[in-house]
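quick one, 202 residues, struct below
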Amino acid sequence: MLLWLLYVIFWLPGKILLPTKVVNKKFIPKKGGVVLACNHFSNLDVILLQLNIGRGLKYLAKKELMKNKFVGWFLKKLGAFPVDRGNGDIAATKFALKTLKDGKALCMFPEGTRNKSDSNELQDLKSGAVLFASKTSSPLVPMMFVSKPRLFHKSYLIVGEPVVFNFIDPNRPSKSELNEAVAKLSQIMKNLQNSHLKNIDN
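---
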């Protein structure tokens, strides 16, 4: 209930301050467990996605963001769960798997951290999003912000077709299988961004 109240409060200011156009939103399943894998520019990405995706989202957020009690409370109401990025966080893993098994949408930033450079290019990806999708037999939907969101400038979020990774053992993919899947996801995400930029140039 509180999530929807926050949605109503922030929807209009968000649309005015950070207008975002979602391209190919039809590729996002309206129900069922799904991993949404997106590039990451700023802490505002969480709010932008929550306002524009069209269904409630769950996230894994670095625990450092939860140090401030109000910010931590707010992020948790937005669906965030704290994760210790420096160690194997069993609680965060269980949260992610349960989210998907319960038929909910789990949004992840596979770059692992924000892109703080002047470049909009995708950084190297971690394997978590692929692993969670595989372990729960969930589709993975790649998404890309074309460029860093700026106040009063329209931002574009490009959504790709769902991807299903077929490993010999979904619970224990080999290192080579996992590396290949991550490389495939990285290329798909880069292609989403490049195809949109080409359309603009034409």
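The chain is about 40% helix and 15% strand.
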